[in-house]
């Protein structure tokens, strides 16, 4: 029995690092922010996120994307950026930490602000955990929690 203990430990560790399973497709794995655990980081997906092609909100437009910076500090990965309307006060801001990333999705914890768009005076501030996902043949990750303010659907996309 003792000779199987290392194998069992490897299997348990491998399962813990495997990321979201098919059964968890619609759930965000979001441990308590104060607890430090190993989180799955797909190297190819992380590289794609690092060299992203910008961020957009449909109310502002897809043709002129905003910028999204990916930085690392003390082993943690942070996302910060946004998009501003060319004319008018509309803006999107995103600021927070990458929780985990898999081939077709990632979890983000932080703040998303949508202000003065599509209507002047609208202020949609979200603070929490969110999932971005690639679906079909799309060349971007889309925020999955689209309807959180005012009953409007906000398409926040991060391109690769």
Which whole number gives the mean pLDDT?
Answer: 84
Number of domains: 1
SS-based class: mainly beta
Query: What order do the helices and strands follow?
Result: HHEEEEEEEE
Summarize the main sheet: 8 strands, antiparallel
Q: How many distinct beta strands?
A: 8
Strand content: 35-45%
- Compute the CA-based radius of gyration: 18 Å
Unreliable runs: 1-29
Oligomeric organization of the protein chains = single chain
Task: Work out the helicity level.
Answer: 10-25%
Number of helices: 2
The shape, in one word, is: globular
Written description of the protein model:
13% of the residues lie in helices and 38% in strands. By secondary structure, it is mainly β. The protein has one domain. The chain is built from two helices and eight strands. Residues 1-29 have low confidence and may be disordered.
Topology (elements, then pairings):
Blueprint: H1 5-17, H2 43-50, E1 55-57, E2 67-73, E3 76-84, E4 91-102, E5 105-115, E6 123-133, E7 140-143, E8 156-159
Fill in the keyword field for this structure.
single chain, 160 residues, eight-stranded antiparallel beta sheet, 8 strands, mainly beta, 2 helices, disordered N terminus
């Amino acid at each position: 029995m003792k000779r199987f203990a290392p194998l069992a430990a490897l299997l348990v560790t491998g399962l813990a690092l495997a990321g979201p399973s098919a059964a968890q497709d619609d759930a965000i794995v979001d441990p308590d922010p104060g607890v430090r655990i190993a989180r799955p980081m797909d190297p190819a997906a992380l590289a794609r996120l690092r060299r992203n092609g910008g961020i957009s909100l449909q109310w502002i437009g897809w043709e002129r994307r905003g910028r999204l910076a990916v930085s690392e500090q003390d082993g943690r990965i942070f996302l910060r950026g946004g998009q501003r309307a060319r004319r008018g006060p509309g803006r999107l801001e995103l600021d927070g930490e990458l929780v985990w990333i898999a081939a077709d999705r990632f979890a983000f914890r932080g703040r998303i602000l949508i202000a003065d768009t599509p209507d002047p005076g609208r202020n949609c501030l979200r603070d929490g955990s969110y999932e971005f996902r690639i679906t079909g043949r799309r060349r971007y990750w889309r925020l999955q929690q689209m309807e959180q303010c005012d009953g409007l659907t906000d398409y926040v996309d991060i391109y690769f």
